[in-house]
Amino acid sequence: MVLLLDKAILLIVCLAFYAPNMRVGYIVIPVIVAITASSLGSYFEHWAARLMLFVVYGGFCFADSRFLFFLPLICFDLFDQRWQGFVVLILIPVIYHLQAIGLDQAIQIILLVLLAWLLKNRSVKLQKLQAESVALRDTNQEAALQLERKNHELLERQDYEVNLAMLNERNRIAREIHDNVGHQLTRALLFTGALRTESQDETTRQSLQTLQDLLQDSMNSIRSSLHDLHDQSIDLHQEISEMIAGFSFCPVKLIYDLEINPDKKTKYAFISIIREALSNIARHSQATTAEITLREHPGFYQLVIRDNGIGASHIIAGDSDGIGLKSIAERVTSIGGLLNISSDSGFVIFITIPKTQRTGQSS
């Protein structure tokens, strides 16, 4: 746009310079030829095409001195090319027609050529600045997007680390209670039982029995709480990752897309299913790669386990070796899920498990 504006300004100046020197007959032809050549110069970006236009227009200048007035317009397109030194050739037709146009007009033509050079340089520099500005803007936008993505990844990683630390702390507390309070209650139960056995007084024995029952209820309550605490502290992603890390038969890729841990029953089902599936891969598949995909949808979980092995049609048909798949099917059915198995290309276990009201209670 800047180049076209500068070229229009140069055309107006050339026309103003040409108007007082018009002679009768064909006064419009130099204008049409100059505008046509200039338009072609803007269309053809290759230096050879622009140089050819310059040479052809130079021939017109030799034929008629009136074409000299628009030489600056033709030179404008040549100034940013590799052969812009050829512009000095304009002196040849100017000198050739010097007697016809006069020294003053010859100097004016040369000055207009210098003006064209200044305008072209200004336009080229402005275009470079605009291109650099656009490139800088795009670079800044890309950097901002990358920074935002990194921040999001850091926040997700931070949340995961905090959750993992919380789960580890729950495990530690559960162990502390089990090792200390649990053992103390066990000793108290044994001691109370011994006293009740040795006591001869019926009232004392009944009191000790009541105390023993209270201690036993406390022990059962603590055990139940410890089991719940332990179940909640299990991180499904970590458990699956550890299983994969210990699986040496073939490389296994994990795609884990769950925002929070499922409920306890679903969590243990996933762990058992994946463990059994990995065992089947090692025993039957002859696979070289495997993939485990676990995704969360609004109403259900989706577990897909696939490998590139030979398939397992004999297992699907119900041979005795299919105990592992039967166990998987029973596990899926027990929590209301659906199981599909395919052995067309490799072996694929596709499982969907509906969410329950307990989902999200364990973190």
Structure keywords:
alpha+beta; 5-stranded mixed β-sheet; 363 residues; disordered C terminus; 5 strands; 67% helix
Describe it for me?
The chain is 67% helix and 9% strand. The chain is of the alpha+beta class. The two termini are 61 Å apart.
Note the topology.
Layout: H1 2-18, H2 29-43, H3 47-63, H4 71-76, H5 91-96, H6 98-198, H7 202-233, H8 236-245, E1 252-257, H9 264-285, E2 290-296, E3 300-307, H10 313-316, H11 323-334, E4 338-342, E5 347-354
Helix pairs in contact: 1-6, 2-3, 6-7, 8-9, 9-11
Short description:
The chain has 363 residues and is of the alpha+beta class. The chain is built from eleven helices and five strands; from the N terminus they run ααααααααβαββααββ. It has a five-stranded mixed β-sheet with strand order 1-2-3-5-4, with helices on one face.
Sketch the major β-sheet: 5 strands, mixed
Side by side, the strands of the main sheet go 1-2-3-5-4
| Class by alpha and beta content | alpha+beta
Calculate the terminal CA-CA distance, rounded to whole Å: 61 Å
Q: Count up the helices.
A: 11
Which band does the percent of strand residues land in?
Answer: 5-15%
Mean pLDDT across all amino acids: 76
Output the radius of gyration. Answer: 45 Å
Shape: rod-shaped
- The run of helices and strands is HHHHHHHHEHEEHHEE
Uncertain segments are 313-320, 357-363
Helical content band: 55-70%
Tell me how many strands there are: 5
